[in-house]
Amino acid sequence: MNILIAGGAGYIGSHMCKYLYQKGFTPIVLDNLIYGHREAVRWGPFYKGNIQDKNLLSRLFLKHEIEAVMHFAAFAYVGESLIDPEKYYENNVAATISLLEVMKENSIRDFIFSSSCATYGEPVNIPISEDHPQIPINPYGRTKLMVEQILDDYHTAYGIRYVSLRYFNAAGADPDGEIGEDHNPETHLIPLVLQTALGQMDEISVFGDDYPTEDGTCIRDYIHVNDLAQAHLLALEGLLNNRGGGKYNLGNGDGNSVKHVIDVARKVTGRNIPSKIVERRVGDPAILIGSSEKAINELGWKPQLADLPTIIETAWRWHKEHPDGY
Q1: What is the spatial order of strands in the sheet that 46-48 belongs to?
Q2: Is the entire prediction scored with pTM above 0.90?
Q3: Region 159-173 average pLDDT
Q4: DSSP element (H, E) containing 3
Q5: pLDDT for 71-85, tens place per residue?
């Protein structure tokens, strides 16, 4: 079965491709390589292009007899979305509408959407469940919420069946070390900590140590990228077997503070990782932890790489072997 992976050369998309291939599917990768890496595409045919290119999409759907679409092709830098919101509304919303339009024209109705906990905004309750108010506080989060709302309308009007998966903090790397996390610029904590362990950075900045948490630093919910891939496949199988769609959080249900992440990384790497306390960043909640009970109960999701040392060990293997990325 052929599955179109939009954004399949990116961090999560490439891990999804390998996971699908291992399970007997053929991932058909479409990526414009603005943030993705051609070297990460190893488990299916690759096409360089954009999801708003309707002619290209139509050719792919016909040539490969695509059965379903997984969408990982959004831009995802929160800070950039504040500076250049047009870029985000154009790519994350308008381009997704183009993709859905060509799906309709080709009678492809199953769609897995890579969403985000950014749709919730400032947390009201912890852990965050799927019925938490969705009041995003930046354009990135608003684009994700808009697409979820569009999908609701397309389901009602056109029969598009979808699952929206709201990630918390994706982390880790392929346990085999073949692919990993390589962003430019890098903004995620774990790869920045590991770059510091490699001596590529002098120190890791800790943005505030006066939060109402046990050690004063922010707490986040880290989920291994392979566990994300497992959830996507379960969601796809549900749609293909007519079990319906829905919206699901993907997290571990517990959190780790910034200081704890750094301490675990020191143990995993065996290296001194200098850190420095700096001023808080505007808009950083003290605690972000998601409840994934719905995904566990309804999708049958069973994270296999959930503990923080394992997450960091897999990431460290990738960064040691690829200190300059791909």
Answers
A1: 46-48, 26-31, 2-6, 66-71, 110-116, 161-167, 246-250
A2: yes
A3: 97
A4: strand 2-6
A5: 999 999 999 999 999
Annotation marks residue 21 as catalytic: no
Range of the domain at 97: 2-171+223-250
Contacts of 44-53 with C-beta under 8 Å, sequence gap 24+, read: 44/5, 44/8, 44/17, 46/8, 46/9, 50/95, 51/6, 51/95, 51/96, 51/98, 51/99, 52/94, 52/95, 52/98, 52/99, 53/98
Q: Which tens digit of pLDDT belongs to each residue from 213-245? A: 999 999 999 999 999 999 999 999 999 999 889
Amino acid at 122: E
**Which CATH number is 231's domain given?**
3.40.50.720
256-257 and 26-31 beta bridge pairing: unpaired
In a domain, 241, yes or no: yes
Query: Residue 189 domain-assigned?
Result: no
Non-local CB neighbours of 153 within 8 Å, separated by 6+ positions: none
How many beta carbons lie within 10 A of that of residue 11, not counting itself?
25
Strands 26-31 and 219-220: unpaired
Give per-residue pLDDT as tens, 295-326. 999 999 999 999 999 999 999 999 999 999 99
In single-letter form, the type of residue at position 275 comes to S
Q: CA-to-CA distance for 160 and 109, rounded, in angstroms?
A: 5
Residue 130 lies in a domain: yes
pLDDT-derived band at 282, boundaries 50, 70, 90:
confident
**Beta-bridge partners for 4:** 28, 69
Q: CB–CB of 209/277 below 8 Å?
A: yes
Could you tell me how far CA 145 lies from the centroid of its own chain? 15
Would you mind telling me the total number of residues written for the chain in this entry? 326
The tally of domains found in the chain comes to 1
Quick check: is 261 in a domain?
no
Question: Choosing from 140, 154, 162, 211, which is the catalytic residue?
Answer: 140
